[in-house]
Write a structure and sequence with these properties.
It is globular and about 65 Å long. It has one domain (21-180). It has a ten-stranded mixed beta sheet, with no helix packed on it. It has two helices and ten strands. It is of the alpha+beta class.
């Protein structure tokens, strides 16, 4: 009897044990039908789908991504790719925060710089804004993790919009509902085992 109580106490305690954080990398965006770059599409890609996420610091002390499935897609004509660039105004180091009044990188001058293009479609001019939710650099300035949302207006046209989020090695903890389901499953297993012993 005591062993049974100890089992359920152990199960209850699992509710207070944090599950390990997961590393999330993905690009997702949606676009208006009049957007030249997005073409009205809603897209989400991540490494599990064969996409490589290449990141580097750009010459304006910002962050640039090249995302593609070149290595995993045997049909070159069907490959997909996107480039995404972020820069703070006046060449400052890109840090967490909201950056309004962005114009086309790398021709942004004193403004914040932004550029989202892909699959052979890009803008000559653009306006937009972005929000760097988190960014972590190592001692050498390399990007360890990055998370930002962005909105870009093709050719400065408010009706030709693209909006999305880029996540790179962002730690994500499972949702509370996931933890609750895990605990419920463990309790169910315990009850089943107990009923079998009593039978």
């Amino acid at each position: 009897m005591r062993s049974g109580k100890a089992f359920f106490v152990a199960l209850a305690l699992t509710a207070f044990i944090p599950l390990p954080a997961l590393s999330a990398t993905s690009l997702n965006y949606t676009s208006s039908p009049s957007s030249w770059v997005g073409g009205g599409q809603t897209v989400e890609v991540d490494p599990s789908m064969g996409f490589a996420f290449n990141v580097q610091r750009n010459f304006d002390h910002g962050v640039s991504f090249a995302i593609n499935d070149f290595a995993s897609n045997p049909d070159f004509q069907a490959t997909r790719w996107w480039d995404l660039d972020f820069a703070a105004p006046l060449g400052a180091t890109l840090e967490p925060g909201v950056y309004d009044g962005a114009t086309r990188f790398p021709f942004q001058g004193a403004n914040a710089g932004l550029s989202f293009d892909g699959n052979g479609r890009g803008d000559n001019q653009l306006t937009g804004f972005f929000d760097v939710l988190s960014v972590v650099y190592d001692a050498a300035g390399n990007v360890l993790s990055f998370d930002a949302t962005f909105t870009q207006f093709d050719e400065n046209n408010p009706s030709a919009w693209n909006t999305g989020e880029i996540r790179y090695n962002v730690a994500s903890v499972p949702e509370p509902t996931t933890c609750a389901l895990l605990c419920a499953g463990l309790i169910l297993v315990g009850l089943t085992a107990k009923s079998r012993r009593q039978a």
